[in-house]
Amino acid sequence: MAYVVVDNCIMCKYMDCVEVCPVDCFYEGENMLVINPDECIDCGVCEPECPAEAIKPDTEPDLEKWLALNAEYAQLWPNVTIKRDAMPQAKEHDGREGKLEAFFSKNPGQGD
């Protein structure tokens, strides 16, 4: 089992989760984070830290596409272990529907 980042992270990218992760398994895209499921130790400390509630255990139903997306982009994006500010429009986008189709960027983020 692992945790995965889901659509509500897109355009928010709160980074509270990265500073509590004991195994540094977060990877940064231009407008969201992902968790490498092969590195995640299922400790769960990141889940309550996310203000957008965008981190879920992969045992929840209908998360297969998110597990695949996290696994794919964790191989392509840089590792991030330091917290930076959320995206400027985070509050505006928090809870918005359809963010994967409308806003997801394949571009890498800054990383450490």
Rg, nearest Å: 12 Å
Q: Helix segment count?
A: 4
- Give the DSSP E fraction (strand runs of 2 or more residues): 5-15%
Q: Give me the side-by-side strand order of the main sheet.
A: 1-4
Spans of at least 5 consecutive residues whose pLDDT stays below 50 are none
Mean pLDDT: 96
How many structural domains? 1
Return the CATH class.
Alpha Beta
Can you tag this structure with a few keywords?
single chain; 112 residues; alpha+beta; Alpha-Beta Plaits; two-stranded antiparallel ribbon; 4 strands; globular; metal ion binding; electron transport
Characterise the protein shown here:
The chain has 112 residues and is an alpha+beta fold. The chain has one domain (3-87): Alpha-Beta Plaits, CATH 3.30.70.20. 22% of the residues lie in helices and 11% in strands. The protein has four helices and four strands. A two-stranded antiparallel ribbon has the order 1-4. It has a two-stranded antiparallel ribbon with strand order 2-3. A hairpin with a 4-residue loop joins strand 2 and strand 3 (33-35). The N and C termini lie far apart (26 Å). The relative contact order is 0.31. Its cofactor is [3Fe-4S] cluster; [4Fe-4S] cluster. Keywords: 3Fe-4S, 4Fe-4S, Electron transport, Iron, Iron-sulfur, Metal-binding, Repeat, Transport. One of its GO terms (molecular function) is metal ion binding. Ferredoxins are iron-sulfur proteins that transfer electrons in a wide variety of metabolic reactions. Residues 87-100 have a biased composition (Basic and acidic residues).
